[in-house]
Each structure stands twice: as C-alpha cells, then as structure tokens.
C-alpha cells in the first residue's frame, strides 16, 4: 500500500501538512520500508479522520489543532521507532541493525547498556584482526603461566615467543567475533521473549 | 498543595492505565481504528489522552499478541488500520480486571 496524501484547499494548510509528513519521514527513516510506510500511513489516516469530523471551518486552524493534539513526531515516534528497530534487528542478524537498535534503546534501561558494552567487545576482536596485520610481531595472544596473559598489543614488553596462536590468531579472532555476535543477538532475542 | 507533583502523578497514572483502558474498549470484540478508539475512550471515560502516545502503545500490544491489526481500504483512498482483541488479549484483560478490583479495594481502605 502506498501513501495517499490528503488534499487541501488552503495552501498554508497544505504546507503545514507536508512539513509534518516530512518530519515523520525523517524520524522513521532508520526502519525498513514496510515499517516506515505503516507508521506514515497510520498517522496520515489519523489526520484525515480527524479532519472529517469537522468538515467545515478554517483548514489551517483545524489542522494545527489536530497536529498539536497528536504531538511532535520527534517525541511520539521515539518509543515506536526504538521498539520496531529492535524487532527488525533481532529478526535479521544484521550487525548494523543490531547496533542501531541498541543505540536507540540505550535510554530504555541498564540491560541495553550492558548489551552495548558487549557489542564494543565484539568490535575489539575485529580491531585486533587489523592490528595483527599491521603489527604481526607484537599483536597476539601472549601467555606464560603465572607471568604473562595478554590478548592484544604486547607493547614490546614480552617475548614474542610467548605468542601461542601464530598464524591461527586471525582465524581465532574471526571465530570469537562471530561467536560473540551470535551470543549477543540470541541474548537480545531471549530478553525480548522474557519481556513478553 | 504541590500542583506540579499532582500533574506528574496524574500523567503517570494515565500512562500506566492506558493499556488497561484500551483492552477494555476492545474486549467487546468490535474493531476500532486509532482515531475512533481515541474518541471512544474520551466518550466513555472522559479521560483526555495524549493522542500521539496511543500508537506506540498499540504497537506494543500487538507485539505482545494481545491485539491484531488489519488495513482496510476506504473510498477516500486513505485506508484505516483497524485493531481488534485476540483470545490471548481477552484472557489477559480478565486477569488485569481481577488485579484492578483488588487494588481498588485496598486503595479505598487506605484512603478512608
């Protein structure tokens, strides 16, 4: 279904209406197309039905009253967009969606902050892959019982021979990142199910 | 009297009860579109709700599978999204009513 715009006789009313639609579109543009259309069409229908209630009278005044009662898109759509984004993200396993959804939900509680920190760990693994290529001798997994335990940059303080993974370092980091990513997304899904 | 405090308290109470009110309006089985639902709530309860807050709430109720929605084409070309209650929603609102009555009794006792 496509959005059908409401026709206005008054040009000012039309401009106010178009501006409001534009603000809605701006708020929802992070969502997938179907969710964007749903939200836009539902609010459009609300405006249309409200206008029908009083068919006569000044269009501008009527429209301004309706929009004022409905509220600013920037405010009313925040919780809606955050919810929908999270639903989208846990459905697709797409890291960019998950990251965006977590950002939007940061204000919705401490657990999302924990998820966000876990997510940063994930980028840590990815970063280490790059670092290993750039500086192979000093980046790695250095371990000597009771003395050394470093995953990352040794800063030249340890014997490069203590590096255990060697050429397996990059594959190990790739596997760790993927494993952590699936764990985070599954935890997010689980959290959503528990909330329900 | 602290008007500011009362104002905040009222808006919290309203926010907390809106889902209960919506489910009660829908429990009869009739389907409503958003604007219609707002008017129905105003008519029955005389509660002024911030209209924009209804839509995020409807989305949550739908996520929880308490209500379902359906787009219905209109002659105007601007379709309406109708919401109706699910069996799970009906059971849920019955439980909510029980709790509400108990709460009401306790509040009446304490305010005596």
Could you explain the architecture of this structure?
Chain A: It holds the Pfam family HAAS. The complex is a heterodimer of chains A (196) and B (112). Chain A contains 7 helices and 2 strands, in the order ααααααββα. Chain A has helices at residues 11-28, 33-53, 59-70, 73-92, 95-105, 110-134, 169-195; strands spanning 139-144, 148-153. In chain A, β1 and β2 form a beta hairpin. The longest helix of chain A has 27 residues, at 169-195. The model of chain A has no long low-confidence stretch (mean pLDDT 85). Chain B is an alpha+beta fold. Chain B has one domain (3-111): Orthogonal Bundle (Arc Repressor Mutant, subunit A). Helices cover 66% and strands 12% of the residues of chain B. Chain B has helices spanning 3-26, 34-45, 51-63, 87-111; strands at residues 32-33, 67-72, 80-85. In chain B, a hairpin with a 7-residue loop joins β2 (67-72) and β3. Chain B starts with a helix and ends with a helix. Chain A binds chain B through residues 1, 4, 6, 38-39, 41-46, 48-50, 69-72, 75-77, 79-80, 83-84, 87, 196, and chain B through 33-36, 50-53, 55-56, 59-60, 63-65, 71, 76-81.
What features would you highlight for this structure?
heterodimer, A: 196 residues, mainly alpha, 2 domains, two-stranded antiparallel sheet, 7 helices, 6% strand, B: 112 residues, alpha+beta, Arc Repressor Mutant, subunit A, three-stranded antiparallel β-sheet, 66% helix, WH_DNA-bd_sf (chain B)
Number of domains of chain B: 1
What is the 3D form of chain A?
A: rod-shaped
Tell me the overall shape of chain B.
globular
Largest sheet of chain A: 2 strands, antiparallel
Indicate the mean pLDDT of chain A. 85
Annotation, overall tally of beta strands of chain B: 3
Strand order of the largest sheet of chain A: 1-2
The amount of helix of chain B comes to 55-70%
The chain-level mean pLDDT of chain B equals 92
Helix content of chain A: 55-70%
Number of helices of chain B: 4
Identify the CATH homologous superfamily of chain B: Winged helix-like DNA-binding domain superfamily/Winged helix DNA-binding domain
End-to-end distance of chain B: 20 Å
Transmembrane segments (chain A): 110-134, 168-188
Organism (chain A): Pedobacter terrae
Keywords (chain A): Membrane, Transmembrane, Transmembrane helix
Protein name (chain A): DUF1700 domain-containing protein
């Amino acid at each position: 279904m496509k959005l059908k715009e409401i026709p206005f006789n008054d040009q000012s009313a039309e401009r106010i209406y178009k501006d409001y639609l534009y603000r809605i579109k701006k708020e929802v543009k992070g969502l997938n197309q179907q969710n964007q259309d749903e939200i836009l069409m539902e609010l459009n229908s609300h405006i249309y039905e409200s206008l029908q209630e009083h068919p006569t009278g000044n269009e501008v005044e009527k429209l301004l009253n309706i929009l004022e009662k409905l509220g600013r898109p920037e405010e009313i759509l925040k919780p809606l967009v955050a919810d929908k984004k999270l639903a989208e993200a846990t459905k697709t396993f797409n890291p960019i969606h998950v990251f965006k959804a977590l950002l939007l939900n940061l204000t919705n509680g401490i657990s999302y902050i924990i998820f966000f920190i876990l997510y940063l760990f994930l980028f840590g693994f990815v970063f280490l892959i790059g670092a290993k290529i750039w500086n192979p001798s000093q980046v790695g997994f250095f371990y000597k019982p009771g003395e050394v335990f470093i995953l990352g940059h040794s800063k030249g303080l340890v014997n490069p021979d203590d590096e255990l993974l060697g050429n397996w370092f990059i594959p190990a980091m790739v596997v760790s990142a993927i494993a952590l990513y699936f764990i985070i997304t599954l935890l997010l899904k689980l959290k959503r199910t528990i909330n329900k | 009297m602290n008007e500011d405090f009362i104002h905040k308290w009222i808006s919290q109470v309203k926010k907390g009860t809106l889902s209960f009110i919506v489910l009660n309006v829908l429990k009869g089985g009739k389907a409503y579109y958003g604007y219609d639902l707002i008017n129905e709530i105003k008519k029955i309860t005389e509660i002024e709700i911030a209209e924009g807050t209804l839509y995020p709430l409807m989305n949550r109720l739908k996520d929880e599978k308490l209500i379902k929605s359906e787009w219905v084409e209109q002659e105007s070309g601007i379709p309406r999204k109708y919401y109706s209650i699910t069996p799970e929603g009906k059971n849920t609102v019955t439980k909510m009513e029980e709790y509400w009555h108990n709460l009401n009794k306790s509040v009446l006792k304490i305010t005596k």
